[in-house]
Structure formats: C-alpha cells, structure tokens
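Pasting two entries for a bug report.
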Amino acid sequence: MSVPELAVRGLTVRFAGITALDDVSFTVAPKTLHAVIGPNGAGKSTCFNVLSGVYRATEGSVTFGDAELTKLPPHKIASLGVARTFQNLALSDYLTTAANLQLGRHRLTRTGFVTAGLHLPSARREERAQADKVREVAEYVGITEHLPLPVGLLPYGVRKRVELARALCLEPRLLLLDEPVAGMNGGERRAMVETIGRVREVMDLSIVLVEHDMALVGRLADEVTVLDFGRRLTTGTPAEVRRHPDVIRAYLGKSAEEDPAAAPRTNDTPAQGQGENP
C-alpha cells in the first residue's frame, strides 16, 4: 500500500477562548521523518491529538492522501494506517507484553465474533498468524524476552519500547511518536534512537516526531517545524532551524544578533521537560 502525503493547513484549535494552535501549516512528504519541536506549551501535543482524532480542530484541515482526518474519530483514523505513541504511557499494565501488542493488531483481524467463539480452523490459523507477527515486531524492537511478562513489571524504558512495538503492530503508513525517549537514561535513549532509525529506513511509512531532544531531531529528521505559543515559527532542515533567529529567541530568549554564541548546537537539549498543556 502506498504512503500518501500528510498536509496540515491552517490548523487552529481553541479551548474555552484559549488558542492552543493558531493557523499552523506544514507538509510531511511520503516516507520522510518530520519533527515538530518547540518549548513547553507550544502546542506540540495538541497538534498530535488533532492528527490522531483525540481533539477536533476549530478551523483548518488535515489530509492524509484523500482522507480528511479532522472529520474522523480515532478508530477511523487508525483504520487508515495512522498509529501513535503517547507522551504518558498508555499501556495495560496487567496484561502481558504479548497481549498489549495484540491490541495493536485489532484493526487487522478478520475473524468474526462467531468464528472466534467457535474456535474454527480459520480462527486458529489467524490466531497463529497474528502471534507470529507480534513476535516478529517484538524481535525487531528488542523486547522478545518480555513477551510473557505483565507490562506493569517492566522497567520504564522497556515499556516505552513496548508502546512503540504496539504502534508498529498496526502496520502503519503514518507513525506519530510523542516524545519517544522522554524519561529514559542515556543507554535507553541511544537504543531507542537506533530503533527509530531502523524503522524509518526499512518500513514503508512516514513518521511525525514530537521531541525536546535537539540532538535526536538533528540525527533523524528530514524536516522540522517549530511551534511557539501555538504558532508556526518556521519549517526547514535541522541545520536551517538551529540557525533561525526566531527559533533561538523562542528557546533562549534572545536573538543571534544580540548574542551570536546563543545559537543552539547540535548536541544541545535546550528545552527539557515532559509535560505540556494544550
């Protein structure tokens, strides 16, 4: 199945008179990784919640190929091949890792209720096929040994990888990653970055990444959109964005002309923190 373009046009979201996103536009070309960055409260998570159907746009449009996403509920968006991870983990702690990954296969299950209840041969065949796919994804992400364990017993960094694996189990054409390395230690972050790099090289999909870690963005992103107070400051390559005076001002409170040494370096992480209000 081909990967269509994602086009965000004039996206505006208001909550009780507060404008969380204000006329935001950007395009994600097929099979590219597009990062959305900005200080806390810039509107990044709000943008993600519109793309995945959690929030409704007040104005503007989001199209994925021929589909207008702003008119669809989350399950319909998922059926188009859009999968996401969450800033705060959204896993079932009492279920095993394998069962959590099986939830990501739900839209791809063809067995009906009666067939499954009667445990007919076709249902057993599909059950084996789905289990094989879950194991394949788990091996790819490096969590095979954790498949029989309840997710609630796993370290935080492993649970973040489980959430990524569950999203990949949906076989997405568009993968939305909401701060995938937040809260991880150095080793966990490096392993996750390597995994995301493999995903974008091998799998037939586009990725939209929300992240504070500028070093990660610089290594992975083809293009970056910067938000500040709900508005788009600029879109460009990671190198172009790092040099942009409005981006420097948003992160550091001064322009490059006022302080040439203020420009963010590749390995800087100028805006740490995990929470973001709409």
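Entry 2 (this is the one that rendered wrong in the viewer):
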Amino acid sequence: MSYRDVMLQIGSYPDPTPVAAIDAAVRFTKPLGARLSALAVQVRIPVRSNSVLARLMGVGEIVRDEEAKSLAACRAALDHFARATREAGIEAEGLIEEEVLEGVAGHIARRARTRDLCLVPLCPVLDGQPAIVESVIFGAGRPVIVFGTDTAILPGEGALAVTLAWDGSRSAARAMADALPVLKLARQVRVATVGGDKRDPGPRSTEDLLRHLKLHGIDAAHDRIEAEAGSTGAALDEHARAHGSTLLVMGAYGHSRTQEFILGGVTAHMLQNPKTALLLSH
C-alpha cells in the first residue's frame, strides 16, 4: 500500500492559506512519491436581499469585490504551488473550483473521496478550517492530515517520527491501516496506549498490533501512559512531545445528530490547539 494521490486543500476566504503551508505540503509529499493536487475553492457569496436599502448600501458591489479577492487568492496560491512543486520535482496539479461559501466544507469532502489522503492546514487566521476538517473526517471516508505553520508543523523527509494512539477500536484500526505508508517511512514509531482510560485495549490487543506492524516492516515500540479521566488528549500531547514525535496518528471519534457530527472529547481536544500534526481517520 502506498499513497499515490494526495490532495492539499487551499483556502481563499476570508483569509488565504499561508505559503508556508503549501511549502510544508510539498516537502511532506515528495518522499511519498505521490502526485499532489492543490484544490483552491473560489467562494460565491449569495445576496439574499433585494431591498432598496441593500441596493443603496452597494451590497452587490461589496459581494463582487469579496468574490474577486477570493479568486485572486486562489490564483496567487496556485502560482506559488506550481513553483514549489516544480522545484521539488514532484508531479502536481492545481485546481480552482467554485462553491457557495456555506458549501465549501462539503465540496472539499466530496473531492477528497477519490484521493488517498487529504492535507488540511489549520491556521489561527483561517476561520472556516475547523468545519472543513470535520467535514473531511466524517464525510470523505479517507484519512486527513491536519497541520499548522507555527505549531503542529507537517514533517518533511527525515523528520518523520510517529506516535500511534491505540485503543483497539474500529477507528484506531482504520487510522493505523490508513497511516501505513507514512509509518513505513518514519524513523521512529511508538504505539501509545492510555491506562486509566475507558478505551484501554489491554495487552493482547496491543501485542497483536505490534505483530501486525512488524509484518509490514515496522518495528514499533510500545509505551503505556497514564491519564486521569478527561485528560487523554493532554497525555497523548505530552507523549508526542517527550519522544520527539512529529506526527500523531489516531482514530477520530464522533457521533451523528441529525446528520451533524459532534466531535468526541479527545478528537475535539486535539483539533482545538494541535501540538503535533495529526493524521485522523474515522
């Protein structure tokens, strides 16, 4: 198994994706030998009022200006993407597609369904990114890597060290399987199980995981860490920091409420203020 088809989501509104995130995605993808597609979405902003007041205020003109800014941000990002991928010598494609503002998250999830992996930058200035992350996790059926540019930096070649969070669940198994291509490239893989947590898998499940990884050529170490109730996310953050991990792999938990997914506690903790790049699967 390998990643052959990776997609980078590029935001254009209200703030554009930083070029540092584009550069990080290129560095991460190069050792994978994958094709990298950058999907930049130009937003359309529906004008819902035809009132005289709206016309007097020039709402239509304001909306057209904002849409033009979004398109300009898409073009600038893809120009930088083209240069970066050309210099790195990787196969690449830049795409600009249109979508209404409230439909962007669902649009990204649908396009991610036919990719091996989706990369989503999660930067403080990008207000809509958490919704995109959640939509891809629960709507794409494919793994997503969430990363930042100041913290939770996406590792490049030679810098990949992985903590794999394991609780024996279906979501954890899916994340492990989805992460195999990066686990094989990592200079270090550590399996972390959390004692004191209701999802403690027990020794038999963990031993079977280590056996499975070894058959894939991955010689992983196992660490059992302790956590008080409600602090599993913090314990995993500390484990990753202590062992120099640059990527944390875990299953994403959530439940549906009238087709709206509500993130589980550990997943929500990790996404609120990620300390390490995250590979999440559901």
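Dev reply: Rendering is fixed now. As a check, the viewer should reflect this: Residues 5-147 form a domain with the Rossmann fold fold (CATH 3.40.50.620).
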